[in-house]
Amino acid sequence: MYKLKHPTSKLDWREHAYKENVFVKGGIATCKEATTFNYLRNLGFIPIEEDEPTPEEKPKELEDKIVEVIEEEPKQGLTLSEIASKLEMHYVRLARPIKKLIELGKVRKDDKSYFPKES
């Protein structure tokens, strides 16, 4: 199984997925045949090393970072915008991970502020 990613998002993934039997998920192209792998490399795709994190692993890391930031201010709590600024990203990217953390009971929300779970 070969995994590749493309350095830009301007490429039409659907075109290549349809023609070359490429499975695409989260910006990562996966193919089984060496000829397809070489074809995609010629188009500018970059092979992913096995130890390189894939997008499937990144949300977990982001959730851990969110919890760490929230635990820094356990008494006051933090708004989503404050968490985003500490993580240096747009607050919209945090909406799903923080919702999941609330469902898992790792974080609680009170009004607009987020707090670490109570011990």
Plain-language structure description:
The termini are far apart. The chain has 119 residues and is an alpha+beta fold. It contains five helices and seven strands; from the N terminus they run βαββαβαβααββ. 42% of the residues lie in helices and 19% in strands. The model has no long low-confidence stretch (mean pLDDT 78). The protein folds into two domains: 46 residues; 59 residues, Winged helix-like DNA-binding domain superfamily/Winged helix DNA-binding domain (Arc Repressor Mutant, subunit A, Orthogonal Bundle). The strands form two sheets. A four-stranded antiparallel beta sheet has the order 2-3-1-4, with helices on one face.
Nutshell version of this structure?
This protein has 119 residues and is an alpha+beta fold.
CATH superfamily of the largest domain: Winged helix-like DNA-binding domain superfamily/Winged helix DNA-binding domain
CATH topology of the largest domain: Arc Repressor Mutant, subunit A
**Number of DSSP E strands:** 7
Sequence stretches where pLDDT stays below 50 over 5 or more residues: none
Could you tell me the mean pLDDT?
78
Strand order of the largest sheet: 2-3-1-4
The outline comes out as elongated
How many domains? The number is 2
Query: What structural class do helix, strand and pairing data support?
Result: alpha+beta
Rg, Cα atoms, Å:
19 Å
CATH class of the largest domain: Mainly Alpha
Outline the fold blueprint:
Layout: E1 2-5, H1 13-20, E2 23-25, E3 28-31, H2 34-42, E4 46-47, H3 58-72, E5 78-79, H4 80-87, H5 95-104, E6 107-110, E7 113-116
Antiparallel strand pairs: 1-3, 1-4, 2-3, 5-7, 6-7
